[in-house]
Amino acid sequence: MKPYLKRAWAEVSLSQLKTNVEIIKNLNSPKTKIMAVVKADAYGHGEEKICRCLSEECGIEYFAVSNLDEAIAVRGFCPDAEILILGYTPPEYAHEIIQYNIIQGIVSAEYAEILAKNISEPVRCHIKIDTGMGRIGLKHDTPEKCAEEIESIMHIKNLSVEGIYTHFAVADSNDPDNIAYTDRQEKFICDTYHILISHGINLPHVHFMNSAATCYRNNPESTLSRAGIILYGLHPDISLDIPDGLEPVMSVKAVISHVKTVNKGDCISYGRTFTAEKELKIATVTVGYADGYSRLLSSKGEILVHGKRCKIVGRVCMDQLMIDVSDVDAKSGDIVTLIGKDGNDQITADELAEMYGTIGYEVVCGISKRVPRIYID
Ligand SMILES: *Cc1c(COP(=O)(O)O)cnc(C)c1O
Questions:
Q1: Domains in the chain, ordered, with CATH?
Q2: 77-85, long-range: CB < 8 A, 24+ apart
Q3: Could you tell me the pLDDT band of residue 331, with boundaries at 50, 70 and 90?
Q4: How many Å lie between the centroid of ligand 1 and the Cα of residue 124?
Q5: Cβ contacts of 57 within 8 Å, gap of 6 or more
Q6: Among 20, 24, 27, 37, which is best to mutate for testing ligand 1, by the most ligand atoms less than 8 A from CB?
Q7: Is residue 112 over pLDDT 90?
Q8: Which of 28, 58, 201, 206 is least surrounded by CB atoms within 10 angstroms?
Q9: pTM, to two decimals
């Protein structure tokens, strides 16, 4: 039996994941624990293997996901983990939240009321504060008013409040105005937490660091660092360096199916957007936009063949694309690298993202289901 079809596949390095975790642990103060953000199938890396590795081999105790389905899946892989749902869960699923011992993010007082209405045991939760992201959470002009609303939510029967948290909008920027904005967000949540303490309320958790904050403005007041993209070795923002040693966990590879010589004037792919200006050697590669390799990379992207960059010619198709291999010794059956290292060169998801106006997050999350994840070392 062959383990998987060698057409297009993603190699996920668990040893690199472990290295990244060690580096992140060293960025954090001893009081701050990593909350591994594994939403969206662990950013496309495959939640089961990533969660098991993080929990069994890296000692990670806290996980964050976007919804109840993801939370229940993570519970299956990590029976003892603390699992926080960052986003909305329809309140009629309160029983499942309790049954699987999940912690729910509370987006508003109204939501807290409805969630706790039809249950007979407490539902665990962290209250989300909107300090400037403008997405979800309690929104107030002052930390005093915010603390007041938190206290009133804490009086709701069958709601067990264990923490408060917020999310930064621009922690991945070193523009002074953005830094000041993040400073204000951070001060607001910390002040709110201190007011609660002064009222005798000692919540176990206050957390606000994402990957960017973990790298650039690590603060020991945050009991958890909600690390997402840096776990997977990518940049929160491509313009800022990340700490040495953090390297991508995922590579994506495919195969050359066909090599041919085309003449001057010959067209390649749909739409006839590419016409050869001279004789060229063209290879067809077994990957396309249905695998998550964006069509926006048509006549733009590059692919590593035997360590050399080869340009995509013409439009990326659903399942295939063509590259110019005039300068390399390419033949049918050769493995090529769309994302990852080959020889001395490397193409990162961040680099591809930059090419078509998105972020590395979207590139790795977008590698589709059809692409098997192969776990190495
Ligand atoms: C996705 C998410 C994170 C992780 O963000 P990264 O930039 O990947 O570290 C943290 N907190 C919240 C609320 C999120 O939605």
A1: 13-232 (3.20.20.10), 250-347 (2.40.37.10)
A2: 77/47, 77/48, 77/51, 77/52, 78/51, 78/52, 80/55, 81/51, 81/55, 84/35, 84/126
A3: very high
A4: 20
A5: 14, 18
A6: 37
A7: yes
A8: 201
A9: 0.97
